[in-house]
Design a protein that fits this description.
Layout: E1 3-8, H1 16-31, E2 35-40, H2 46-57, H3 63-87, E3 92-95, E4 102-104, E5 113-116, H4 119-126, E6 130-134, E7 137-139, E8 145-147, H5 153-164, E9 168-173, E10 194-196, H6 197-205, H7 213-222, E11 226-230, E12 238-241, E13 254-270, H8 275-285, E14 290-295, E15 302-310, H9 314-328, E16 332-345, H10 354-365, E17 370-376, E18 379-385, H11 389-399
Parallel strand pairs: 1-2, 1-9, 2-6, 3-6, 9-11, 10-12
Antiparallel strand pairs: 4-5, 7-8, 11-12, 13-15, 13-16, 14-15, 16-18, 17-18
Helix pairs in contact: 1-3, 2-3, 5-7, 6-7, 8-9, 10-11
Bound molecules: adenosine-5'-diphosphate (ADP), aspartic acid and magnesium ion.
Adenosine-5'-diphosphate (ADP) binds at residues 9-12, 41, 151, 173-175, 178-179, 181-182, 184, 208-210, 254.
Length: 407
């Protein structure tokens, strides 16, 4: 007997037919004698629909009320799935995040899970029930409903698996595993049987939305065996594991990309100690995450400073930066949201300095101009003009032979 946490994403529960198909799948695992916790997303499109409803009313909804609104999507699915399980004769109960004590901090719309009490869930499992939990949501210490950021149901599932010490966390989605890149952009993308936590973390943090980044962080931290598989077809999917000796040491595991980028430049900044802090301090205080940072070599006592942020934060960041520019006597502020980021990721890269230059060569051959570059031990990322996204990803996929299995 195993304890398995299964998560079904939006497309997998996108209609009442799909919900009933999921119920049958869950029943099969349960009939085999496993204890099953199911975490579900809102039906596909639902979260966006709710966001649009709020936008009809106001462009500045209260963060608290936004979370009250968005959490309803998942609540619909837990009830419907539980009804579908009942119809199949399976004893099951649904719970919202708050009901099973998914305690989070109070940062609405990007809350972090701080604690989960597994007692109630355990009691149900021991009584032979399937437990159905709403993904993406929790409550803070004051009982306010919070949500975990887009794609947050993945994190609910992994956190539940960690809290319950589950044997495996299975993320069922609309692809049959993790691919070398998004198969929607590159049809030649190849499914990976295994990938390391480290690589998956870099892919997720560079924009691969197949798993929410925090779910991978959690799984790595608590060593939760994590698998991505299709809810539509049978298969082994992709196992996310610790690095093993005999693992296929591909130089590049995959390519991630993100359309959610925007770039800000502050020009003519006085070049003296503390200036980077003066620029980024207020941005950090506003809870805006900064990704790449470039400061040019100073000339005539001034320098230019460029950094990237999430596109959604652009308006706010421009406002803050304009104020900073006035305060420190910088010349001007520029911004560009027609940019994307493309990243090559692989643990095999550690010993291969040539990767970056091969990447630049391949992009140059297609006349794709690189605007910014950043590297880490297992990643090289570039910022390019938005219109080059597909071409860039496909070019690199081919240049690094990612469609071919390494031998
Ligand atoms: P769910 O609703 O099940 O959470 P998501 O849409 O969040 O599903 O994630 C699945 C999608 O992630 C796939 O349909 C695919 O387009 C996209 N994706 C991006 N990068 C990858 C990748 N490297 N491997 C597989 N899928 C990826
Ligand atoms: N429903 C939420 C979203 O669309 C959470 C999730 O699906 O994981 O982002
Ligand atoms: Mg998702």
């Amino acid at each position: 007997m195993a304890l398995i946490v299964q998560k079904y994403g939006g497309t997998s529960v996108g209609s009442t037919e799909r919900i009933q198909a999921v119920a049958e799948k869950v029943k099969r695992y349960h009939d085999e004698g496993n204890q099953i916790v199911v975490v579900v997303s809102a039906m596909s499109g639902k979260t966006n629909e709710l966001i649009a409803l709020a936008a009809d009313i106001t462009s500045r909804p209260s963060a608290r009320e936004m979370d009250v609104l968005l959490s309803t999507g998942e609540q619909v699915t837990i009830a419907l799935l539980t009804m579908a399980l009942h119809k199949l004769g399976v004893d099951a109960r649904s719970y919202t995040g708050g009901q099973v004590h998914i305690r989070t901090d109070s940062s609405h719309s990007k809350a972090r899970i701080v604690d989960i009490h597994g007692d109630r869930v355990k009691a149900d499992l021991d009584a032979g029930r399937v437990v159905v939990v709403a993904g993406f949501q929790g409550t803070d210490e004051h009982g306010n409903i919070t949500t975990l950021g887009r794609g947050g149901s993945d994190t609910t599932a992994v956190a539940m698996a960690a809290a319950l010490d589950a044997d495996e966390c299975q993320i069922f989605t609309d692809v049959d595993g993790v691919y070398t890149t998004d198969p929607r952009v590159e049809p030649n993308a190849r499914k990976l049987d295994r990938i390391t936590f480290e690589e998956m973390l870099e892919l997720a943090s560079s924009g691969s939305k197949v798993l929410q980044i925090r779910s991978v962080e959690f799984a790595g931290k608590y060593n939760v065996p994590l698998r991505v598989l299709s809810s539509f077809e049978e298969g082994e999917g992709t196992l996310i594991t610790l690095e093993e000796e005999d693992m296929e040491k591909a130089k590049i595991a995959g390519i991630a990309f993100s359309r959610d980028e925007a770039k800000l430049t502050i020009r003519g900044v006085p070049d003296h100690p503390g200036v980077a802090y003066q620029i980024l301090g207020p941005i950090g205080e506003a809870n805006i995450e900064v990704d790449m940072i470039v400061q040019n070599i100073g000339k005539d006592g001034t320098t230019d400073f460029t950094f990237t942020i999430h596109r959604n934060d652009l308006d706010e960041a421009v406002g803050i930066l304009q104020k900073t520019a006035d305060e420190i006597g910088a010349r001007e502020v520029e911004y560009d949201d027609k940019i994307v980021k493309i990243a090559l990721v692989g643990v095999g890269m550690r010993s291969h300095a040539a990767i970056a230059s091969n990447m630049f060569k391949a992009l140059a051959k297609e006349q794709i101009n690189i605007q910014m570059i950043s590297t880490s031990e297992i990643k090289v990322s570039v910022v390019v003009e938005e219109k080059y996204l597909e071409l860039g990803v496909r070019t690199l996929h081919e240049a690094f032979g990612l469609d071919q299995v390494e031998t």
